[in-house]
């Protein structure tokens, strides 16, 4: 590392503006370290398929494997809530696009 600053294009949540977002309105990128990216549905295979599709998109965008520390499955049996919740705990720096910015900075040098 050269110690030179790398400019990141982040939104208000600290995520890269280029990061693919989950498409379904019940899915979300949460705001905590090793951010959980949540996929909620009453049908578990559907939630898993959406999480896999998003992971493929995010890795293609990042240009390398996304650092996922854990996959967590939970449920919510409250009325009106999607029953299943699949969480991918993802590295903040990857979601902010840091590897992209570092590669770009290296190309400019």
Detailed description of the structure:
The chain is 31% helix and 22% strand. The protein has 109 residues and is of the alpha+beta class. The protein has one domain (28-108). Strands 1-2-4-3 form a four-stranded antiparallel sheet. The mean pLDDT is 90.
How would the blueprint of this fold be written?
Layout: E1 28-29, E2 35-41, H1 44-62, E3 68-75, E4 84-90, H2 92-95, H3 98-108
Antiparallel strand pairs: 1-2, 2-4, 3-4
Summary?
The protein is of the alpha+beta class and 109 residues long. It is built from three helices and four strands, in the order ββαββαα. It has one domain.
Number of helices: 3
**How would you spell out the order of helices and strands?**
EEHEEHH
Strand line-up of the largest beta sheet: 1-2-4-3
Task: Give the overall shape, derived from the CA principal axes.
Answer: elongated
Features:
four-stranded antiparallel beta sheet; elongated; single chain; 109 residues
